[in-house]
Structure formats: C-alpha cells, structure tokens
Amino acid sequence: QVQLVESGGGLVQPGGSLRLSCAASGSIFSIYAMGWYRQAPGKQRELVAAITSDGSTNYADSVKGRFTISRDNAKNTVFLQMNSLKPEDTAVYYCNTVPAKFAWGQGTQVTTS
Asked: CA 91 → CA 27, 45, 49, distances in Å?
C-alpha cells in the first residue's frame, strides 16, 4: 500500500505563494498519474492539478496560470507551486493518484487571508 504525506501549507496573504510537497512511499510511484486535490469547508474534494507519468499536466480553470504541478520520480515526490493565491484557494490540499487509488493522507492546510 502506498502512503502519501503532504506538507508545505500555511497562512499566506492574498497574492502570496506557497510550495506544497507530497512524498509517496513505494517503488511504483513513477507509473501513476498524480494529482493535487483540495477540499474547502463545506465543499466536496476537487482535483485542481494533475501530472502524468511522462510529465504532461492539466489544471482546473480556477487555478490555471497560477499553480504549477511537477514531480520528481527519483524521489517519489510531487509538488504544487501556488502563486497569486486568493482567499478562495483556502482549503486542505491532498495528493493522490488520478483517479484516486490510495488512502488519503492527512493533507496540508492552506489559508489565504
């Protein structure tokens, strides 16, 4: 079973930046498409960014042009660079495969205020 550990969240002012990291256990990380999801209070979890095993990316319209997803297969890690943060980006951010196959990690809280 793959375990996912997210980190890098925090409190940031509007317009600020954060870089999230997700470390995955297991040697088969590189074969999966990976994604960053977020869940705001009272809302369903949504996929905001995805990256295939060969590095192709896709973004939700709400974050396009502001967020960048990347991955380091040698380190079993996926990143999310978030720029120009807005209050509506406030949520708990999670990583998982796309579609989600593994148990969710604890997530990392991002608060823009």
From this structure: 29, 9, 14
Side by side, the strands of the sheet bearing 91-97 are 10-12, 108-112, 91-97, 34-39, 46-51, 57-59
Measured CA distances, 111 to 16, 17, 26, 106 (Å): 11, 11, 30, 16
* pLDDT given at position 29: 76
Cα angle 86, 91, 53 (rounded to 5 degrees) comes to: 95
Q: pLDDT per residue over 65-90, tens digit each?
A: 999 999 999 999 999 999 999 999 99
Interval 99-108 mean pLDDT: 95
